[in-house]
TrEMBL record:
PANTHER family: HTH-TYPE TRANSCRIPTIONAL REGULATOR (PTHR30537), TRANSCRIPTIONAL REGULATORY PROTEIN (PTHR30537:SF3). SUPFAM superfamilies: Periplasmic binding protein-like II, Winged helix' DNA-binding domain. This is LysR family transcriptional regulator. Keywords: DNA-binding, Transcription, Transcription regulation. GO terms for biological process: DNA-templated transcription.
């Protein structure tokens, strides 16, 4: 059995299409199809069923997955060992993250890590949804709820604060806000209710604030709405320093605390390279969030 055929098999299983797998593998879909057919012939078993939804694993295909992933880990470990990665980190690492974290924290964190490891390439996948590690969309995922199922390794990344905030221009044009009752009549900014992909993101329901009038599934868009003076919104403290005229409102009455979790596939725990990256990344993230929150408190 050829390892390269197994690599192609895993790419198709994760992408569920020949064309998507081809993009990952940087080859053409016809080549991917031939490699899958060759592996099926070698094994004497059909590994995929083609349907309108894409390529679905058959029962033999599902049984092959853990063996192929074991081979993948072995090849990765061998590459790390032979490359002598005892010093700096190198190669490509992809991180999936909520767009608030991706926009306001990760650029500084990843930039600093790359400065210390010139051979390292970091990709940030910013999505307003959960990242699928089983399909290998990323090496790591940052989540706002601790996952409880699946074959995953989970570690606490950092706690972070959120407050109600508004732009100085909006606050100057509206009556003073000194108590929760004063929020009535103010335009509220938040998530599109039916697109809240994690219960931890339902901020306004927790605070009892009025109904959302301006909404987006993107934290970055919500912050830009606040920055434009369009209303008030619950924002991450670590985002406030990027918007100098945005200030916290009723910080004692409306204060939320959440946690970021760093998640990876359980099979990757044997990768020294990914473990070393996780340690450096967690420390840098905690330090950066603390720095930004200190700046926000001083505004």
């Amino acid at each position: 059995m050829d390892w390269d055929d197994l690599r192609v098999f895993l790419a198709v299983a994760r992408a569920e299409s020949l064309s998507a797998a081809a993009r990952v593998l940087k080859c053409d879909a016809a080549t991917v199809g031939r490699r899958v057919a060759r592996l099926e012939e070698d094994l004497g078993a059909k590994l995929f069923l083609k349907s309108p939804q894409g390529y679905r694993l058959t029962e033999p295909g599902r049984r092959l997955i853990p063996h192929a992933e074991t081979a993948e880990q072995a090849m990765s470990g061998a590459a790390e060992e032979l490359s002598g990665q005892t010093g700096g980190l190198s190669g490509q690492i992809r991180i999936g993250a909520p767009d608030g974290c991706a926009n306001y924290v990760l650029p500084q964190v990843c930039g600093a890590i790359c400065d210390a490891n010139p051979g390292l390439e970091i990709q940030i996948l910013a999505l307003p949804r959960m990242v699928n590690l089983s399909k290998r969309e990323a090496d790591f995922a940052i989540t706002v709820s601790r996952p409880t199922g699946g074959r995953l390794t989970v570690q606490k990344l950092a706690d972070y604060a959120l407050h109600l905030a508004g732009d100085r221009s909006y606050l100057a044009a509206h009556p003073p806000i000194t108590a929760l009752a004063d929020l009535r009549g103010h335009r509220m900014i938040g998530y599109i209710p039916d697109m809240i992909f994690d219960r931890e993101l339902d901020y306004l329901a927790e605070t009892g604030a009025p109904t959302v009038d301006l909404a987006s599934n993107s934290v970055a868009v919500q912050m830009q709405m606040v920055r434009a003076g369009a209303g008030l919104g619950i924002v991450h403290d670590f985002a406030i320093p990027a918007c100098p005229d945005v200030v916290r409102v009723l910080p004692e009455a409306i204060a939320l605390r959440r946690t970021f979790w760093l998640v990876r596939h359980a099979d990757d725990r044997r990768s020294e390279r990914l473990t070393r990256f996780a340690e450096a990344f967690a420390q840098a993230t905690r330090t950066e969030i603390a720095r930004l929150e200190t700046l926000a408190a001083g505004q």
